[in-house]
Structure formats: structure tokens, C-alpha cells
Design brief:
By secondary structure, the chain is an alpha+beta fold. It has one domain: Sandwich (Lipoxygenase-1). The strands form two sheets. Strands 4-1-6-7 form a four-stranded antiparallel beta sheet, with no helix packed on it. The chain has a four-stranded antiparallel beta sheet with strand order 3-2-5-8, with no helix packed on it. A hairpin with a 2-residue loop joins strand 6 and strand 7. The longest helix has 23 residues. The radius of gyration is 22 Å and the shape is elongated. The protein starts with a helix and ends with a strand.
């Protein structure tokens, strides 16, 4: 027969476990992403920024982290990759060259989850993926 003190201890442990599991289901999970920029022709310049919302480990607060994406696609067969992580990703990247088109892809685990294109600085490729904060 379980003593009254042990029974109370088991109830407290069970309630704590339920509370922990409930709290964990609320927390968002960070994923690893690659922002890949490719061009239709050689030498296309691009400029933009991505923002990754990252979940805090111990708190429910999220933190925004910026990632500058700027450079040149030297060869149409060699895209530029940028790594980031979070539960929500937002990118705006524009073609800075007068000709050609850039393609911006967001990859998770090697698979493209969203993409966009830009042919001018006035029309950036906009990517949005994940659970909005």
C-alpha cells in the first residue's frame, strides 16, 4: 500500500510532467535553412536582407536575427548560399543588375520550401516561410 506522502509526491511529479509537456508543445522549434541565390546570367549583383525569428530555449520570447545577403552570382551554375535558422523566415532580395533575373530559394533539409524571382531593384523577390511570431 502506497503511503499518503508517496501518493502526494507522485501527484506532484505527474502534474509537473503534464505542465512541462504542455509548455513544450507551445514552444516553436528552430529549423536550419539555406537561402540560395542564383542568376540567369553570369555576373548578376544582388542585395537584400533576411530576418529569422528564433525561438528562445527557456523562454517563450522569440528573437529576431538579421542576415545581409549581398554579392554577385559569378556563374549561372554556381549559386550563392547563406545559412540561417529559426521558426519563421522573411527575405527581400533584389537584382541590382540591369539585365538578367535572380532566383531566391529557401531550402530546408535540401528541399525548396519557397522561392521567388527579381529582375530589378524595384521588384525584390519576397520569401516568407514558417509560423509568424
Amino acid at each position: 500500500m502506497i503511503q499518503k506522502q508517496h501518493r502526494i509526491l507522485y501527484l506532484i511529479l505527474g502534474a509537473s510532467l503534464i505542465g512541462l509537456l504542455t509548455g513544450c508543445s507551445y514552444n516553436r522549434t528552430n529549423s536550419q535553412f539555406i537561402v540560395r541565390i542564383s542568376g540567369s546570367t553570369n555576373g548578376i549583383q544582388f542585395d537584400g536582407q533576411c530576418t529569422a525569428q528564433k525561438a528562445g530555449f527557456w523562454s517563450r520570447e522569440s528573437v529576431a536575427q538579421s542576415l545581409d545577403v549581398k554579392g554577385t552570382v559569378e556563374s549561372a551554375s554556381q549559386p550563392q548560399d547563406y545559412e540561417t535558422s529559426g521558426f519563421f523566415i522573411y527575405c527581400a532580395v533584389a537584382n541590382q543588375s540591369t539585365n538578367g533575373t535572380i532566383t531566391v530559394e529557401l531550402l530546408r533539409e535540401g528541399n525548396v520550401v519557397t522561392s521567388g524571382q527579381s529582375s530589378s531593384p524595384d521588384e525584390p523577390a519576397i520569401l516568407e516561410f514558417g509560423q509568424r511570431p
